[in-house]
Amino acid sequence: MPKEIKCVVEECHFNENMICNADAIEVRSSGDRSVETSDGTACSTFKPQE
């Protein structure tokens, strides 16, 4: 069974009914400090809807 990745970013091209349908995702830190919570991360896979 495939795993689903929840996505609540309605403006993302890969968001399909609140599930990410990208082939792969990349998550990185959103700043230059050590990450200690999810607030310090960002989805680099984001692509705006056309």
Distance between the termini: 30 Å
Strand content: 15-25%
Rounded average pLDDT: 91
- Helix-strand pattern, N to C? EEEE
| Number of β-strand runs | 4
Number of domains: 1
Question: Structural class, from secondary structure content?
Answer: mainly beta
Helix amount, in percent? under 10%
Strand order across the largest sheet: 1-2
- What Rg, in angstroms, do the CA atoms define? 12 Å
Give the biggest beta sheet.
2 strands, antiparallel
Shape: globular
Poorly predicted spans: none
Count of runs of 4 or more consecutive helical residues: 0
Structure in words:
This protein has no helices and four strands. Strand 1 and strand 2 form a beta hairpin. The protein has one domain. It has 50 residues and is mainly beta. The strands form two sheets. Strands 1-2 form a two-stranded antiparallel ribbon. Strands 3-4 form a two-stranded antiparallel ribbon.
How is the topology of this model organized?
Layout: E1 15-16, E2 19-20, E3 27-29, E4 41-43
Antiparallel strand pairs: 1-2, 3-4
In short:
This protein has no helices and four strands. With 50 residues, the protein is an all-beta fold.
Key descriptive features of the protein:
50 residues, mainly beta, 4 strands
